[in-house]
Write a structure and sequence with these properties.
Helix content is 0%, strand content 33%. With 97 residues, the protein is mainly beta. The protein starts with 9 loop residues before the first strand and ends with a strand. It is built from no helices and 8 strands. The strands form 3 sheets. The chain has a 4-stranded antiparallel sheet with strand order 3-4-5-6, with no helix packed on it.
């Protein structure tokens, strides 16, 4: 069973006061539940990378925070014990777990 990590899926369009914003599917990334480097096992948080345009994903059961570029390609990870979520400071790109 594949459980893709979904990020950077929607790009918000222009919104007017009298209409709802429009959304457009961009892409998905992640392949299946796995301990492999670029794949995830129970993603528990996701945040946008304001500096590079990619995404950070908290991988709870692999104890990792993973960084993906703006094309959804795996960049790197670092270890993090039992992080339940994350956020990125838009001013400087610091990731908070």
């Amino acid at each position: 069973m594949l459980i893709p990590v979904l990020a950077s899926l929607l790009a918000m369009g222009t919104a007017r006061a009298d209409s709802a914003p429009s959304f457009e599917f961009q892409f998905k990334f992640g392949r299946s539940i796995s301990r492999n480097t670029g794949e995830t096992n129970y993603p528990s948080g996701i945040a946008h990378d304001p500096i590079g345009g990619g995404s950070f994903v908290m991988d709870l059961l692999n104890n990792r925070v993973k960084h993906y570029d703006s094309d959804g390609e795996f960049v790197h990870y670092w270890l993090c014990q039992q992080g339940l979520g994350l956020a990125v400071d838009p001013r400087n790109g610091i990731v908070w777990v």
